[in-house]
Amino acid sequence: MTKFHVHLISDATGETLTALANAAITQFEVVESSQHLWPMVRNKQQLDDVVANLKNSPGVVLFTLVQKDLRDHLVSSCRMLRIPCVLVLDPVLRTLAAYFGVESKDQPGRQHVPDADYFNRIDAMDFAFAHDDGQGTPALAEADVVLVGVSRTSKTPTCVYLANRGVRAANVPRVPGQPLPEELAVLGSPAIDPLIVGLTASPDRLIQIRRNRLLELKETPNTPYTDAYQVRTEVKDARQVFARNDWPLIDVTRRSIEETAAKILALLERRRETGP
Prior knowledge:
The protein has helices at residues 15-25, 44-56, 68-81, 92-100, 116-130, 155-163, 182-185, 203-216, 228-244, 257-274; strands at 3-10, 32-38, 59-64, 85-87, 145-149, 169-173, 195-200, 249-251. By secondary structure, it is an alpha/beta fold. The protein has two domains: 3-112, Rossmann fold, CATH 3.40.50; 116-274, P-loop containing nucleotide triphosphate hydrolases (Rossmann fold). The strands form two sheets. Strands 2-1-3-4 form a four-stranded parallel sheet, with helices on both faces. A four-stranded parallel sheet has the order 6-5-7-8, with helices on both faces. Strand 1 (3-10), helix 1 and strand 2 form a beta-alpha-beta unit. Helix 2 runs parallel beside helix 3. The longest helix is centred in the last third of the chain and has 18 residues, at 257-274.
C-alpha cells in the first residue's frame, strides 16, 4: 500500500478541515495517508514555514485561509512545487481521486465506521481520566503529552480535547511548596518520552477564575488560593520550572481550549517532523 502525504493548512484550529479530509480520504480503501495539520497560520512567516515542510514531504494540500494574500501565496508556492492545492470549497473528492489514481467508494458516512482510530480515541480518553491531576504518575512515560501548570490553567479540559484526537494526554499540577513527581525528572530521552508542555496564565485571570470557582462551591473567595501575591508567586515559580527544564510554554490567558490543543498538536507534529 502506497503512503501519501496530506497537508491541512488552516488559519483556525483546523477542526472542520480535518473532519472534511477524513470524510474524503476514508473513501479510498487502497490508500494510506499521513496527515500533517498546520493550524493557526495567520501570517506569511508562518505560511513560509509550512511551505518549507511541503518541500520535504510533498503531497496534497487542503486549506482554509481567509486572507487573500495568504491564499495567493500558498497557491503560487504549491504551483512552483507542482503539488495539488485545494481550497476546501472546491471539489475535494475529485482532486484526491486524480492524485491517488483510484475511484472513491462514494459511500456516505464511512468516516463513522469504527476503526483503529476510533479505538485509539477511546483508549486515549481512558488514559486522560486515569492520569488527571497527577494521578497515575508511574505511567507518565506512556503518555504522548504531559501538561504541567498551576491550578485553573485548563489542564483537564485540554487533555480531554486532545484525547478526542487520539492523543494520550496526562496532566500534573504545579503545587506551591511541593516538588513535581520524580517520574517527570527521569523522562530524559526525547526520542521515546512524552512531550512535556507548561501551561500558564496571567495572575489576574487566574484570580478571577479561582474566585468564581470558589463562589460556585459556596466557599469564601478570599483565601490564599486567590491572594494576588500568592498567585503571582505561583505563576513566577511555574515559569522558572518550565524554563529550567526547557519545556515549551503556552499562555492560555486569551486562548480557547481548541487553540491551546491546536498549539500542542503543532508541537507534536514538529517533533515528529524534526526529531528530538
